[in-house]
Specification:
NUOK/Mnh_C1-like, mainly alpha, transmembrane, Helix Hairpins, 78% helix, membrane
């Protein structure tokens, strides 16, 4: 049996990698991938605690989080397509000219 601490360590590392990706990348696709990595780290936490306590509440919340992530990707891809049409690049720093 794998103890819950290993799952928490894995999710902490995944969350830190995702946070690093958000803070350092300019590419919008890599930005979305980093957000997905952070959401998956939260899902691992939910499932690990659900397994440790012997109930399915964490797994249920994990399913809702996956549905939220799917909706976030759909909206994010739409934003990226608009960004590419307007600037011929998916660099998020160029989108500052779209302000007022």
């Amino acid at each position: 049996m794998v103890p819950a601490e290993w799952y928490l360590l894995l999710s902490g590392l995944m969350f830190c990698i995702g946070l690093f990706g958000i803070l350092t990348r300019r590419n919008a696709l890599l930005f979305l991938m980093s957000v997905e990595l952070m959401l998956n780290a939260a899902n691992i936490n939910l499932v690990a605690f659900s397994y440790q306590w012997g109930n399915v509440t964490g797994q249920t919340f994990s399913l809702f989080t996956m549905a939220l992530a799917a909706a976030e990707v759909a909206v994010g891809i739409g934003i990226i397509l608009v960004l590419y049409r307007n600037f011929n690049d998916i660099d998020v720093t160029k989108a500052t000219t779209m302000r007022w």
